[in-house]
Amino acid sequence: MSGAQGAGVNPSATARDLGALFDPRAVAVLGASNDRSKYGNWISVQALRMQGRRPVYLVNRRGEPVLGEPTHRSLGELPEPVDLVVVAVPSAGFEDAVEDALAAGAKAIVGITAGFGELGAEGRAREAALAARVREAGAVLLGPNCLGVLDSTSGLYLASNPLPAGPVALLSQSGNMALELSRFLIDRDLGFSRFASLGNQADLTVADLIRSCAAHDGTELIAVYCEDFGDGRDFVEVAAEARAAGKPVVLLTVGGSEASVRGARSHTGALTSDTAVIDAACRAAGVDRVSSPREMADLLAMLHRFGDAPARRVAVLADGGGHASVASDIADAHGLSVPEFPAALSEALRGELTPSAGVGNPVDLAGAGEQDITSFARTLDLLLGSPEVDSVLVTGYFGGYGDYGPELAAAELATARVMGERITLLGKPVAVHTMCADSAPAEELRRHGVPVFRAVEDAAQSLGMLARRDPTPRQAPRPRTDAQPVADDGYWTARELVRAAGVALPPAQLAADEAEAVAAARAIGGPVVVKALGLLHKSDSGGVALGLATPETVREAVADMSRRLDPPGFCVEAMADLRDGVELIVGVQRDPRFGPVAMVGLGGIATEVLRDTAFALAPVGRDEALELLSRLRSAALLRGVRGRPGVDLDALADAVAAITEVAAAHPEIAELEVNPLLATPKGCFGLDARIVLDA
C-alpha cells in the first residue's frame, strides 16, 4: 500500500484551512461497497463508527444497502451539504466524482482512487488539473491514491484500517508502514492523534499537513514516512516551525541505497533525493531521521517521555558484570559517552552497595538484587541526581527476581514503582533493558512512561538518538534568485563569478595563442599555470600545465595542448604556493526538491578517493561553514597536525559562504564547484572552478 509522486505541488507557503479534512460537520463515502476486497467497503466500515457524532452518508450508484445501512445513488441526492467526501470509485470516473463532491458542498476531498501520477506523465497532468480545480473551488484534496484520514481527537474515522488513539500525528506515503508503526506504538502505550495518507500529494503536501498538525492541540509529536517531499524547502520551513513549537518531527524515508530509490520510483513514481541531501535538510529543520519503523517508535516514545533532555553522558546500571560490560560497549557504539564517575559519586554508591559492587561506571550491583532489591532504586536515584550524568541505561535481570519467591516479587514490584516515580520527578532520560520484559515490574515501569526494551542494543540506540539531536537547529534560508543570469559555462566565467563573490584567486589573463600566453606569463611574473579552455575536466584531459617558469616552457605547453586538444583559448594563472596548504573542494548542486545543496570536503586528487564530505542546504553563513568543516574526518588537518600550522579558518569559512551564496543566487546553475580551494595559514585561494548550467 502506498502513495506516489507530488505532481501538483501546492504553490502556497501559507497555512491552508484543513478544518473540513480533520473535523468535518458531515461526511460522505462515494463508492461505498459490500465487497470486502474493496476500499469502499473498508472505508465504510470505519465511517459507520462515527454515527451519532456526525452525519455519515454512504453513496452507491445502485442504491443498494451497504453494511446494512441505507445508501444514496449520488451525492446530489443527499439531504444536506457535506464538508468531506471520500472518493473510492474507478479512475475513469474520478474527475466527475470530484465535481459532484464540490457541488455537494465539500471543502475537503479524500481521493482513495489510484491510477494517476504513479502511472506517468498523463496521470500527472490529470492530477495537476484536478488540484487546480479543487483549489479554485476553495477546497482541499488529499491524495489521490491514498488510504484515507483519521483524527482521534475529533472522532473522525475515514482510514482503511482502525488505528490506536494517542499523541502522535502520522503522515505516511505507505499504508503498510502506518500499520506496522501502529503495532510498535501500541507496545509503547502510544497511538495516533491524526493519520493522513499522503498519496500522490496532487494538492495537499506533506508540508501542508505538518503545518496543520503543528497547530493541532491534540498532537504532541509528528511522524512522517515520505518518499517525495514536493517543495523540499517548504518541508524544511514547516518542520522547523513544528520543532520550535515543541512538536518534534521524526522522519522515515528512502534514499539510503540504489535499490530503495528504484523501488520508490517504480512503486510510487516519487522523485527521491540522495540520502546526504535529506540528512542536510533534516539538520536544517531539526528533524530526527530514523531508519526503520521500530526505530521510529522507540524515538517517539523517548521524545514523548523525555523531550529535549540531554542524554550523551550515560551511566550504565547492571546487576551483572557481563551485562555491564556489553552495555557499555554498545552505548559507546551508539555515540554515547560512558565516563568514569567523579570520586564523590563513586563513594556515595559505595555506601549503598556491597563491597564487591562496581561503582566507577558501569555500575555492577554484583548480586545486590537478591540481597536487597531496593538497591536498584537507591542506586538509580544517586545516578539521576548527579550533575555529571545525563541519562541512565539499566540492563540485566531486573523484572525477573519475583521468580525467587512471593516476598521478593512484591518487593521488586514496589521497587519498580519507586524507580518510575523518581524518573518522572527528575526528568532525566532512562532506558531499561530487561530479560523479563513481560514481567509485572516491567509493566509497572511502562505505566510510569519509562521505555522498556527486550534488547540492550535497542535501549542504547534510543538514548543515542536523543543524544545526537541538535539542540539549536539552524534553518536554511531560501536563496535569493535576483542575480544577473550567467551567460555561459566556460572556465573564465566560472572563475570570475567566484572571484566577484569575494573568493581570492591567483592573478590570471586570457590568451588565444602561444605569443599571448608568453606575454601573459611575463605580466603575471613568476611560475605560472596554463589551462586549456573549453574542457570540463581539464586535468584528466591533459589540459593543465603546472610550474612553467620560462617563456619556452609556456610556449611548449600551449603548443602541445593546441595540437592535442584544439581548445578555443587558454588561461594563464600565477602558480600558487601549496606549502602548508590544505586542498579542499567546495561545491553546490541543485537538488530537484531541496534546491541548492552545499558540499565541502577534502579536495584535489583526494576528493573521489577518500570521499570525506559534509553537506548542508545552501546558502550557508560563516558559522554553518565552520560547522560543516568540523564534521569532516580530516578536520584535524585544518587545525594543524604533526608540526604543520593550522589554516586561517575564518578566511576558509568566508570563502565557503561566498561560494554557496553565489551558486544559490543563480537558479540557472545546476552545479558550481571550486576544486581545489587552497586553505593556508595566510588565507584561502580558489585554484580552479567550473559551472554546469541547467539544461
UniProtKB/TrEMBL annotation:
InterPro entries from the xrefs?
A: ATP-grasp, ATP_grasp_subdomain_1, CoA-bd, Ligase_CoA_dom, NAD(P)-bd_dom_sf, Succ_CoA_lig_flav_dom, Succinyl-CoA_synth-like
UniProt xrefs under PROSITE patterns = ATP_GRASP (PS50975)
Question: What SUPFAM superfamilies has UniProt attached to this entry?
Answer: Glutathione synthetase ATP-binding domain-like (SSF56059), NAD(P)-binding Rossmann-fold domains (SSF51735), Succinyl-CoA synthetase domains (SSF52210)
Question: What positions belong to coiled-coil segments?
Answer: none
What's the superkingdom here?
Bacteria
Domain (ATP-grasp): residue spans on this chain: 495-693
Protein name according to UniProt: Acetate--CoA ligase family protein
Natural source organism: Streptacidiphilus fuscans
